[in-house]
């Protein structure tokens, strides 16, 4: 089954009782039992499993080519569940450019756990391998990264992690499974902030893990059940609805993203554009190899002046783009990472990786590209 068909039908079945084409929203906390310990059907309590959430989880596994999907209350809840696999003394190697919430989770919530985190340039494979030791248990990668659009070669990293028997997780939020399939490239786990492209309509907060190995999937499900970070049935329904149009939306995101990136690259006030589809992007060749079908709708850029105030003035003048956090919805959004999504990262660390005060991140939506470019033009003027 090809992707477009999977997005609509993958892992899905008509509802058994009524034949409903879309899974109903089973807004229930518990399920009847005929005798103690003998439920009427396969469900007992919605924290453990719920039919609507199960439909979403089956769809997630299908589109990522995994054996098990798990749906969480947020992307950070999904990441937190994964981290519960590890104990004091374990070490995790992570990419140096990460979503601010992930960095905050790693460095603040887990700072007293005894788990040691290393943040490295994942394109320096030699330097990355030097950090590996008997305590290394996980490699965590975003590709493309938030917000600098760095890429990592998933297949090359997977060869290394397999050699050392280390788990390898990829945050696939920006690329989506329509463009990139980390499990096929050798990763063990995929994480999504399903709030973004999977949901696609800026109306839900959700997260997901998709796992390649059944035993690992069962272990993570137990941790999810025991800690309770599950996604509710209505939110599960909304994300599942979003997945059914994922392929259509991402096609337009890619088309518009490329046009916006090219416009910005030729604008006299713009210093640098970060977009994997541009030939001058430092990781364009990696993008061509592992992002199949397009380069996404995320575009980041800086100003020739290097001035923070220029970025702020530009953002305040936008009319079609909305100044707001988040990304991946049908509407175009604009964001100032240093003051918004990445404010939780210390200033010196931001500057170290290249998140400057004049950096602007755009989530290019599915509107008419001409209107988006006119909006950028007037705001830059």
UniProtKB/TrEMBL annotation:
**Gene3D superfamilies (UniProt xref):** Aspartate Aminotransferase, domain 1, Type I PLP-dependent aspartate aminotransferase-like (Major domain)
- Does the record's keyword annotation contain DNA damage? no
Keyword match Lyase: yes
Q: GO CC annotation: what is one? A: cytoplasm
Q: Into which family does the record put it?
A: Belongs to the trans-sulfuration enzymes family.
Give the UniProt keywords, A-Z: Lyase, Pyridoxal phosphate
**What's the protein here called?**
Cystathionine gamma-lyase
According to the UniProt entry, its GO molecular function terms are:
cystathionine gamma-lyase activity; cystathionine gamma-synthase activity; pyridoxal phosphate binding
Q: Which cofactor does it need?
A: pyridoxal 5'-phosphate
Query: Which SUPFAM superfamilies does this one have?
Result: PLP-dependent transferases
């Amino acid at each position: 089954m090809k992707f477009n068909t999977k997005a609509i039908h993958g892992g899905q079945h008509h509802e058994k009782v009524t034949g409903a084409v879309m899974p109903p929203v089973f807004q229930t906390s518990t399920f009847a039992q005929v005798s103690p310990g003998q439920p009427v059907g396969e469900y007992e309590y919605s924290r453990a499993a719920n039919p609507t959430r199960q439909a979403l989880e089956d769809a997630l596994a299908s589109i990522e080519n995994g054996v098990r999907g798990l749906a969480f209350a947020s992307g950070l809840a999904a990441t937190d569940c994964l981290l519960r696999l590890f104990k004091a003394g374990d070490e995790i190697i992570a990419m140096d450019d990460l979503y601010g919430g992930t960095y905050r989770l790693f460095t603040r919530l887990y700072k007293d756990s005894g788990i040691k985190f290393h943040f490295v340039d994942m394109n320096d494979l030699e330097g990355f391998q030097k950090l590996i030791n008997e305590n290394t248990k996980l490699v965590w990668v975003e590709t493309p990264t938030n917000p600098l659009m760095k890429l990592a070669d998933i297949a090359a990293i997977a060869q290394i992690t397999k050699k050392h028997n280390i788990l390898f997780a990829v945050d696939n939020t920006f690329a989506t499974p329509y463009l990139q399939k980390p499990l096929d490239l050798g990763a063990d786990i995929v994480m999504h902030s399903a709030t973004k492209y999977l949901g696609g309509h800026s109306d839900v907060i959700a997260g997901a893990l998709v796992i390649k190995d059944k035993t690992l999937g069962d272990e993570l499900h137990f941790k999810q059940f025991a800690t309770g970070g599950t996604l509710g049935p209505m939110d599960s329904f909304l994300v599942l609805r979003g997945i059914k149009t994922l392929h259509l939306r991402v096609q337009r995101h890619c088309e518009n993203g490329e046009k916006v990136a090219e416009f910005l690259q030729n604008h006299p006030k713009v210093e640098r554009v970060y977009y994997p589809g541009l030939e001058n992007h430092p990781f364009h060749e990696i993008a061509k190899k592992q992002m199949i079908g397009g380069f996404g709708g995320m575009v980041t850029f800086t100003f020739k002046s290097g001035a923070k105030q220029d970025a702020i003035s530009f953002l305040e003048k936008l009319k079609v783009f909305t100044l707001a956090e988040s990304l991946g919805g049908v509407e175009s959004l604009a964001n100032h990472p240093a003051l918004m999504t990445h404010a939780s990262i210390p200033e010196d660390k931001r500057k170290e990786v290249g998140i400057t005060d004049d950096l602007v991140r755009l989530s290019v939506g599915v509107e008419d590209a001409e209107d988006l470019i006119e909006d950028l033009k007037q705001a830059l003027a």
